Amino acid sequence: MSDDLERTILQAFPPQPLGKAAKELRRLAETMGDGSALGQVSVWTNAVEPLLSAATGELPGHIMFLDGDAWRALLPAWMVASLRSGDRAHRLLGSVVATLDPGFTPKAPEVFSERAAGLTAAQRTAVAEFVSWAAQQPVLADDAHSEAEVGRLQSAWPHPSNALSR
Fold first, then answer.
1. Which domain holds residue 66?
2. Rounded to two decimals, what is the model's pTM?
3. Structural domain count, the chain
4. At what angle do helices 89-100 and 68-84 cross, to 10 degrees?
């Protein structure tokens, strides 16, 4: 399933020059002291390996601090890295899921709305499929405290197959 989901993400978010988003990510990473691995990030697909590298320190958590444009441009990198992360899934998955959750913090609904508003229908579908996958991962599925979070995620990002059954 993760290979199919990765293809869906790649189709919905074709690699395009990141421009300002790459600068935003590098600026943020340098501010937090771990931007050296980001010099060659020009499209989102270039960001996947640095996200998986232990050398990038806190980079997986930086998605929380990206502005809306940079978040939309780099979201697929975090999703694909989460799919590939294996034992680092908790850190990557937790970061991306938090940004997809409209109720993560008191300010989250406004930030969430601004970020999500710029996604295309295909991108929303890819995110919904990612949320469906994430909800089945042990970090969420085995945590009794994540039930409310999973519910918010599934409401915010309804899977297309669930919409047909309503």
1. 2-164
2. 0.84
3. 1
4. 140
